[in-house]
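User: quick one - fold this with pyridoxal-5'-phosphate bound?
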Amino acid sequence: MKYYSTNHNAPIVSFKEATIKGQAPDKGLYFPENIPSLPEDLIKNIRHFSKEEIAYRVIAPYVGEAIPKNELQRIVNDTVNFDIPLVKITDTIAALELYHGPTLAFKDTGARFMSRCLGYFVKDNDKKVTVLVATSGDTGGAVANGFYDVEGVDVVILYPSGKVSSVQEKQLTTLGKNIHALEVDGTFDDCQQMVKQAFADEELNKQVFLTSANSINVARWLPQQFYYFFAYQQWVTASSGAAENPPVICVPSGNFGNICAGILAHVAGLPVQHFIAACNANDVVPAFMQTQQYIAKNAVATISNAMDVGNPSNFVRILRIFNNEFVNLQKVLSSVSITDDETRATLKSVYTNQQYLLDPHGAVGYSALHRYLQHHPGQKGIVLETAHPVKFYDVVEPVIGEKIPLPPAVAAQINAEKKSTKISADGALLKDFLYSMA
Ligand SMILES: *Cc1c(COP(=O)(O)O)cnc(C)c1O
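Assistant: Sure. Structure tokens for the protein plus pyridoxal-5'-phosphate:
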């Protein structure tokens, strides 16, 4: 498989190059030259396949020759080795719980796959690769965990001191080994600025092999298709006749990478009735679906803050999938914006009436799906629950008036010792640090 840039002004590359580069040099996103159709028997007989077999078949055409078969199977097996259960909430709504991975959020799947691919690609390099990221919370934890102990790769994570939650900080700072946390005396924007400056520094890049683990990387984007198939497998196994009535799938969306992977899976052959992109007050895409005008905005802060995105970078990939033909896009995708008040009300009512605890992102999704199903009687749906509610305890606990017990994995991490290097928001200091590691 070859990948071209959505800006059409950069050379065509292999999966390997696309993974190492992250973004195309013309600032476009890499996109596969064609979308492979899945073998029909995979869908028809999906209940007879293991998770590992499904995932391998889905990703193999995208990786092509870049990774040998047995190595790719090992990477895939490692990526999917935690539960992704489909849990019934009401007669018409089930939740796909994507939060049973090591950092309790769906980003684990993409980060685990990408880190292992990169580890494979740099194995025979004489130079180590340094993954450099700035984080405001969730991404850093998933990246740190995904790359932990991957040989030949160092990870440097910048985070704003005092501005990430205690759970998130521990996820970044307690691993050690090849994971280095830089606690920056500044804001998230300062961190991002320092990272940008480092990537733009030619002299530095000659000495240190820097790469990003950005969410637009194809090796993070494409494996997110896996769990849409796992959802469908559980959907058809749960009740007879379910295969004739495929699910409406609702995805809480920010940068639109997750839902874009789902739509890709659908175009490749996965039965889905309809997709809903559930957004918070950041409503660029809901507005676009109404007016066909794409107007990027500054992000506004909400209680589902991992979706506070004013210019979702993966939306161009969704448009690409449909060759920019709006009529076809509209048949497959709807998008709505949900307020913080609705999100809190949904969180509370689903907890009270169904004894199911959503996180704020999942609650945005549940609200949107519930609304859609009211207008489409006879249909049923799945909401993607993208994070464990404990990650957002500061929002969830006051709404339900109860404490959320810590899952064992987190409880252990909360008590582990924090190891970070404090630095002021100064690009020159970051440069010194990167040199000292080379
Ligand atoms: C990142 C994130 C999202 C948004 O996912 P996108 O792929 O950017 O649309 C939703 N929920 C949680 C919990 C996240 O961490």
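One thing worth noting: The chain has a mean pLDDT of 94.
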